[in-house]
Every structure is written in C-alpha cells, then in structure tokens.
Task: structure prediction
Amino acid sequence: MTVSGKLHAIHGPITDQFPGPGRPGGHELTPEQVESFRKNGFVKGGRVLDDRQLAALRDAVELFWSGKNPRMGDLYEIDQAWRDAPQKHLFHILGMWLVDESFHDLLWHPAITAKAAQLLETPAVRFWHDQVFYKPPRHPGIVAWHQDYSYWTRSVPARHLTCNIALDDTTIENGCLHYVAGSHRWGLLPKLNLLKDMEGVRGILTPAQLEEFKPEPMLVKAGECTFHHSHTMHGSYGNASAGPRRTAALNFMHPETRCADGVNPLLYGVPVIPKGEIIQGDHFPIVTEDS
Ligand SMILES: O=C(O)CCC(=O)C(=O)O
Result:
C-alpha cells in the first residue's frame, strides 16, 4: 500500500509486514535477560525480524541510499559529517520512519516493543526517534564511544532505551557494535563528536572508569537485536569487509518524559513543545497500542 499523507500522522501499521500492537504475545525477554540488562546495561534480544521484514528494511535503506526515496524531504536529519566528507564518515540519519512505510511499521512491532516495555518497566512505551547507521563496504566511518543520553538531555528524566537491530550479520571485521558493561552506572558524560574521534572519550574518563573500559563486541545475525540503557557506553569501528554493515536503531522513552527545552524543536521540523510538558503528539506515538 502507498500512503499519500505524512507518515507521522499515522499511528499504527500501514503495511501487512508487521503484526502491530496487541497481537499474540510470546515476545517477552526471559527474567535472566532482564537481569543481565540491569547488571550490564545491555542485552541481546534475539531475532526480531523474519526474512520478509528484513528484506523490506534492507530495500528501504538501499532506496534511500540511492537517493530515490520520494519522501526524502520529510527526514529529520542527515548527519553533517557525512555530507562534508562521505568517504571518511559513515552515513547516519534520523527519521527513516517518516520516509518509508516498512520503517514506519517497525515502530509498532511487538517483538521489539514488548521487550522495551519490560526494560523500561512501563506498559506504555513512547517512541522517541529512530536512526539508521550505514557503513558501506571497506569504509573507515566509526561511531565514537558515547552514551546516548548525552545527546538527549532536553528530554527528562532519563528513562530512555535503544534497540539496535542488525540488518546484516555483524562481525569484528565489519565494525560491529561494542558495549562497555557496567558503564550505565557511571553517570552522564559530556556530549562528544559522534562520528569523528573514536577514542576521544578516554580523555574524560576517571582512572576507575578507564579500568572498567573493556568493550565487548556484539556479534549478532541479521534480524537480531540488542537493547542498551541510555547511559551505556558504546561505539563501533570502521567496516573492513567487502559488504555493507547496516543497522536500524529505535529509541524509546517512558511515556511521561517531559520537554526541558521550550525554545527549540526537539527534532528538526517538529513543533516546539513547551518546557515542562510531556513529550507527545504526532511525532512521539505510544507504540504499544494502535491509536
Ligand atoms: O550500530 C552502530 O554502529 C552504532 C549504534 C548506536 O550508536 C546506537 O544504536 O545507539
């Protein structure tokens, strides 16, 4: 189905690719997985996409990458570093759900949202935004060590969660995601340049944090996912392999998260939300139910 209006106004699946909220369960994480998340700040979430869903998302990323997506103008953001030096920096965009129907429907996918609800400890999960990270074959682009919430302090309090979904099998060679166990308890570190200096964060870590800084590679198959806490340190190296390494990340938050900036839009093109008010509206749907 092709939709003529803006995708952000539609809160629920458009295609028949994803089952939508409230459909048969069985998607929850085990108590051991939840416990592991609490202890380490991340957990592998298993396979969340079937072959058809995976193919649809890959096709969508490739269409966008080729410059032929007809809704390109609706996107929130294409990272400036890539625009300035595409041979050096990876391709990173926000707002794929606004330009592609499969990415739109992925937001309501119970295989992901049921787990997000468990980890955020709320039955109603609110969508914050999405991201696509695209590392072309043999490309040096990195994602420098960082904590997601360093970039999200205009939404309070910090009760956010990221689901990182592999669209390709990940390997050390193709620049898989790495997490630093226990770093979600470090407190918040300053915002760093995400795409430029891999090791920049080391200069601001305490000796104790440096001691704990032992990144673990997340080797997952295409269609599998990991979840991480908003304060978990993570990053990824360049892609030395002959194939692309593509990732979709969904960022969620507690439904009562409030705006801490009443002046600027939280995302490009989104209406300003008054300071202190709940972040809600067309761009921030509750994804555990149709509306
Ligand atoms: O997949 C990557 O390389 C980086 C992903 C990331 O930073 C995230 O999911 O928050």
Q: What stands out?
A: The chain has a mean pLDDT of 94. Residues 133, 143, 148, 162, 164, 177, 234, 236, 247, 249 surround 2-oxoglutaric acid (CB under 6 Å). Residues 51-65 form the longest helix (15 residues). Residues 28-259 form a domain with the Jelly Rolls fold (CATH 2.60.120.620).
